[in-house]
Amino acid sequence: MEYREIRKSDDAALAAIIRQNLKASALDIPGTAYFDSHLDHLSDYYLNDRLKRFYYIAVENEEVAGGVGLAEVEFFDDCAELQKLYLADCVKGHGYGYRLIELIEDKARELGYKKIYLETHTNLECAIHMYEKCGYKAVEKPDAVVHATMNRFYLKNL
Asked: What is the pLDDT of residue 36?
């Protein structure tokens, strides 16, 4: 597996992977990333402000296999949000999710963040296991949560 910054040419494949994952977990509903207005154009969002945002793409055999992003959150000081960590089914179970978390945490530190926050859902049991194994601690739902359907919230000091 190779990892690199998102490109415009990755948008369609990445949106398909994210939607497929959410649909498989019965989360293809309003209040999730499934309906994010910028989901089909993630490169525009992440490449627009590289001082506060970043997205890694996982590439397997020259095909987009998933990715992970970060963007600043304003409801915690010096904090980024880990966003849209998804992998294609064909590459799951090989530890690539852990590697993506490691890469995005390193990038968050490089950008000056001291904490990293994430939102998930109880339907995403494998993701929750991975986050907890990586040291993320459950927190109460912040008032400023955008994805209203998400029901699990985590924070990690970097």
From this structure: 85
Find, among 121, 103, 114, the residue nearest to 76 by Cα: 114
The whole-chain average pLDDT of the chain stands at: 93
pLDDT tens digits for range 96-127 = 999 999 999 999 999 999 999 999 999 999 99
CB atoms within 10 A of CB 26: 9
Structure tokens at 66: 């998933």
pLDDT at 147: 65
CATH numbers and ranges of domains, the chain: 2-115 (3.40.630.30)
Q: What CA–CA distances, in Å, run from 143 to 76, 136, 140, 147, 150?
A: 11, 19, 9, 11, 12
Contact 1, 91 (CB under 8 A): yes
